[in-house]
Amino acid sequence: MRVFPSLLFVFLGTGIFNIEGIPSSQEIEQYFSAAEVGDSAAQFNLGLIYYRGSGVLQDYSKAEIWFSKAADQGLAAAQYNLGVMSYEGRYVPKANIAAVKWYRKAGEQGHAEAQFNLGLMYSLGEGLIKNNSEAIKWYKKSAEQGHGGPQQNLGTAYATGVGVARNYIHACQRRFKSGAKLAV
Hints:
Blueprint: H1 25-36, H2 40-52, H3 60-72, H4 76-88, H5 96-108, H6 112-124, H7 132-144, H8 149-160, H9 168-183
Helix pairs in contact: 1-2, 2-3, 3-4, 4-5, 5-6, 6-7, 7-8, 8-9
């Protein structure tokens, strides 16, 4: 099972948005003020604002700039979003090697979606050499945090013996967990 990455659309910090979820010009100015002095959450939020075109004209290049500033400060959510933008070819040319870099940085900080996507990259050999054992390692890290997506992939791996020893009991358990997570 392959799940395509999607950008993380969670605003960080205490910004209050109007009922439509579009920040007012005053709120955007507050984010700019905070972002200019290095507030990584504000930088991330400006990246989202430009990525979505929320209250501003949609501009992937500005989104990438603000996500990069937050990512350079170690914000895992921004690193993950840069991975998605690299993988999808948004603003930057499609670059699986860059996607792997950003997913790894976010995944090493415990970002479950980044861990899952890094596992996918390993299992497909996109941006790096295919390595099913590494894929399993990253799927497990993501699954341990309750992410449902890797459970299905782990179930398939245990059923087929790809990257792990074949174990039908584990395969059934993982598939059951994936169904339970996806049904919630």
